[in-house]
Design a protein that fits this description.
Mean pLDDT of chain B: 87
Structural class of chain A: mainly alpha
Number of domains of chain A: 1
Low-confidence stretches of chain A: 1-27, 283-295
Structural class of chain B: alpha/beta
CATH class of the largest domain in chain B: Alpha Beta
Number of domains of chain B: 2
CATH superfamily of the largest domain in chain B: P-loop containing nucleotide triphosphate hydrolases
Shape of chain A: globular
Distance between the termini of chain A: 62 Å
Strand order of the largest sheet of chain B: 5-6-7-3-8-9
Order of helices and strands of chain B: HEEEHEHEHHHEHEHEEHEHEEHEH
Strand content of chain B: 25-35%
Oligomer: heterodimer
CATH architecture of the largest domain in chain B: 3-Layer(aba) Sandwich
Number of helices of chain B: 12
Mean pLDDT of chain A: 79
Radius of gyration of chain B: 24 Å
Radius of gyration of chain A: 30 Å
Largest sheet of chain A: none
Low-confidence stretches of chain B: 310-318
Chain lengths: 331, 318
């Protein structure tokens, strides 16, 4: 208390009637009499409730934030954002080159076309799926949040669907983000598609291929993650699936000269193949002309086969997750 | 009887849950009314299974249940939007702030984001964690984490909350505070509470009604006031003094000599076989004659523990 305030209070003792700021003054003051306590703290709520849709939105938003490390210590932000940086930095470099050299670098084959940029994205994608995605399912089982979620309007399917959407959205940031950046930057710089029609076509292809690749890898990553409560095991499992399938199928087809349909088990290649179809990129060269024996190229697989295999990966991943969580729920 | 007392929040009819050959719930016919209902039984009695059935998390093998007028099997989502739940298990993510955790669960239970944010803060103030609301859950004590679980259960303004062993892991002081809090939530905010516990003493302290289970069977169901009440006899506890020696023995033998029933445990004598006034007079005379000192003299109440002892109910933590 300040000395002035203390003196005022002391001097007030000599006066008749209530002092300023005294409780008695409040009673005499009509305005004070009309005062209300507005902060009622805990009270009942009779407003709108958003039901299952609101619950799913909340889980998606929370999971996206969790995956990207928002509201978590710095060590949880590092890996997801490193993946984003890995995916985005080449695009920034290419745009910088395009601006500095001021020529149509795509037409001159100096810069990669949009579909070719996925080579850079693939590294970030595998890194993100291997290290970051497993945590999105494993954490809820490990800390018991799953049981709490299931005591809300959410059911198992809606919980898992929300998680899958969250992973797909964050993966789409990696699969689409750099390409959308390239599209806008090339357009501004003057190296973009000709006319609004071509521009929209490229945009649709970027969005479509981004979603397809994200969905396929999401399903596989979540399937592996659902099988263990240990994040480390999930990480190893996802990395083994992504890299191991590439190595094994590559050896079988390229070295042992087996049927290229074995690439159906190569998660990276089969997604890549569908992306090429979406971008309208056919077999790069007539059979047998390229290095490597004829009939051993994934680009020679039929589009229908490629679509079916990607769909099968998504369905199989979803089935594994569903089977695993039904068992957890029953337990 | 008041309307509130006549209102039935939860009713089950022959509710049965089997896991293989194990009968977890055995044809339960239960009615729960507004207020605090104690769901009591030893570990493995079926308390958590019953809570899961009432939330619609697991369809019963047979029988039916109605909670807040809804069928948990066919209207589970609507029901769970009206019911808060705090599981026994520690379910708090360590890295999350308390206010973010409570807000998130309120949103998942259907509240708009802005309302959930406000109510999360209000709920944490309600449970005494207002000043701690921005702390991460991993840095909180067991008592604080139990309060956070309670806060998330009430944040969405449910009509009823199901609390599974909310005092688990708490010391006696924290346990008392938690029970007081649960009583306040029911009395001051009109939220009905189903409190699952294996401790009769705490159920007796805070609950209006009791549902007691033993190995999946219903042992008791009704208002506590009807189940417990005045017992018979008095309890006389003496101070074990050195000089004169043997005063407790002297008082015991003097009372037995007058035909009073005496049951001794250490320095405590449980007296019966006569009216309370007569027992008090005899006890007073015996104590005076022996030169003993009284620590406690009180009329004996029948407790839930007494009740279940009569029914061979194992109420202890097994």
């Amino acid at each position: 208390m300040s000395g002035t305030a203390a003196n005022d209070r002391h001097e007030g003792l000599d006066h008749d009637g209530p002092e300023r700021g005294d409780a008695g003054a409040s009673v005499a003051d009509p305005e004070a009499q009309a005062a209300q306590i507005l902060d009622q703290r805990y009270r009942s709520y009779s407003g709108a409730r958003h039901g299952l849709a609101g619950a799913m939105r909340a889980v998606v938003a929370s999971s996206v934030r969790f995956t990207l490390g928002f509201g978590r210590p710095a060590r949880h932000k590092f890996l997801p954002w490193l993946a984003v940086v890995i995916a985005l930095v080449p695009a920034i470099v290419f745009v910088g080159i395009a601006i500095v050299l001021d020529i149509d670098l795509i037409s001159e084959n100096i810069l990669p076309e949009y579909h070719q940029y996925y080579g850079f994205i693939e590294v970030a994608l595998f890194f993100y799926c291997g290290i970051v995605v497993p945590e999105i399912l494993v954490a809820d089982r490990r800390n018991g949040m799953l049981s709490l979620y299931l005591s809300t309007p959410l059911r198992l399917w809606s919980y898992l669907a929300s998680k899958a959407v969250a992973v797909t959205v964050t993966l789409a940031v990696i699969t689409m983000g750099p390409l959308l950046f390239l599209l806008v930057a090339y357009t501004v710089e003057g190296s973009g598609p000709d006319g609004i029609g071509d521009w929209l076509t490229v945009l649709v292809r970027i969005l479509g291929s981004g979603i397809v690749i994200a969905a396929t890898i999401t399903a596989a990553s979540l399937a592996i993650s659902s099988l263990t409560d240990r994040r480390a095991f999930a990480v190893i499992g996802v990395i083994l699936l992504l890299l191991g399938s590439q190595i094994v199928t590559g050896l079988l087809v390229e070295v042992a000269e087996m049927d290229p349909r074995i690439y159906a088990f190569n998660l990276g290649e089969i997604g890549d193949a569908l992306k090429d179809r979406i971008f309208g990129v056919g077999p790069p060269s007539p059979l047998g002309e390229d290095d490597g024996p004829p009939g051993l190229r994934i680009s020679e697989l039929s589009t229908l086969f490629v679509i079916a295999v990607n769909a099968a990966w998504v369905a199989a991943g979803a089935a594994v997750v569903w089977w695993r969580y039904r068992r957890i729920e029953a337990g | 009887m008041s309307d509130a007392a006549e209102t039935v929040l939860v009713s089950t009819a022959a509710l049965t849950q089997r896991f293989g050959s194990t009968v977890a719930l055995d044809a339960l016919d239960i009615q729960m009314r507004p207020g605090v209902t104690g769901l009591v039984g030893a570990n493995g009695a079926g308390k958590t299974t019953l809570l899961n059935a009432l939330l619609g998390l697991r369809p019963p093998t047979s029988g039916s249940a109605t909670v807040l007028g809804l069928d948990p099997r066919s209207q589970g989502a609507a029901l769970r939007a009206k019911v808060g739940f705090a599981p026994e298990r520690d379910v708090l993510p360590d890295e999350m702030r308390a206010v973010d955790f409570v807000r998130h669960l309120a949103q998942v239970r259907g509240l708009p984001r802005s309302e959930a944010r406000t109510r999360a803060s209000d709920s944490l103030w309600l449970v005494g964690l207002g000043e701690e609301r921005t702390r991460t859950l991993g840095t909180m004590s067991t008592g604080q984490r139990q309060r956070v679980k309670l806060a998330q259960a009430v944040a969405s303004d449910p009509e009823m909350v199901l609390l599974d062993e909310p005092t688990s892991g708490l010391d006696p002081t924290q346990r008392t505070e938690m029970l007081t809090l649960i009583g306040e939530i029911s009395n001051e905010h009109s939220v009905s509470v189903v409190l699952s516990s294996h401790l009769l003493e705490e159920v007796e302290r805070v609950c209006d009604h009791i549902v007691a289970l033993d190995a999946g069977r219903l042992v008791a169901d009704g208002p506590i006031a009807e189940l417990v009440g005045d017992g018979e006899g008095i309890t006389l506890e003496l101070v074990d003094i050195v000089e004169p020696a043997g005063t407790v023995d002297a008082v015991e033998s003097a009372l037995r000599g007058t035909g009073i029933e005496v049951e001794r445990t250490g320095t405590t004598l449980r007296l019966g076989g006569a009216g309370r006034d007569e027992l008090s007079d005899r006890a007073r005379d015996a104590v005076a004659d022996a030169g003993a000192r009284i620590r406690r003299l009180e009329a004996r109440q029948r407790t839930l523990a007494d009740l279940f002892e009569m029914d061979s109910f194992e109420a202890s933590d097994s």
